[in-house]
Specification:
Radius of gyration: 20 Å
Largest sheet: none
Shape: elongated
Number of strands: 0
Number of domains: 1
Strand content: under 5%
Order of helices and strands: HHHHH
CATH class: Mainly Alpha
Helix content: over 70%
Length: about 120
């Protein structure tokens, strides 16, 4: 089923995207606060053999790939909201055809139809 979104569905998608953005921002803020906490702990520790252990602990706690994923998801949310504002939401960025409605409902961040995704 190709996407022909009503005004109500677009408003629902907009709300969903804003909620996702808020969640992503909160999670990213939590991760940044954790980084700051670890940084302060490392500053207070004396230099010596425990430095290596501290660095390993820091590396374990700082999941940069996870933060990168959050930032990419935030960018994708903003792009989806921009597509809604421009009247392009639900259209494939590759071929311009309508994206399947069930695909959009499952993941409002998608910007390609199934044919172009593969």
């Amino acid at each position: 089923m190709a996407a022909v979104l009503s005004r109500d569905e677009l408003e629902g998608m907009t709300g969903t995207l804003h909620e996702l953005l808020e969640t992503l921002h909160e999670e990213l803020t939590d991760e940044l606060n954790e980084i700051e906490h670890v940084r302060h702990l490392l500053k207070r520790q004396s230099h010596g053999p425990s430095d290596r252990q501290s660095a390993l602990e820091l590396a374990r706690r700082l999941n940069l790939d996870h933060m990168r994923h959050h930032l990419e998801s935030i960018a994708a949310c903003n792009q989806a909201l921009e597509r809604i504002n421009r009247g392009r939401f639900g259209r494939c960025r590759v071929c311009g055809e309508a994206i399947e409605l069930n695909r959009l409902r499952a993941d409002p961040l998608v910007d390609t139809c199934l044919s172009c995704h593969d």
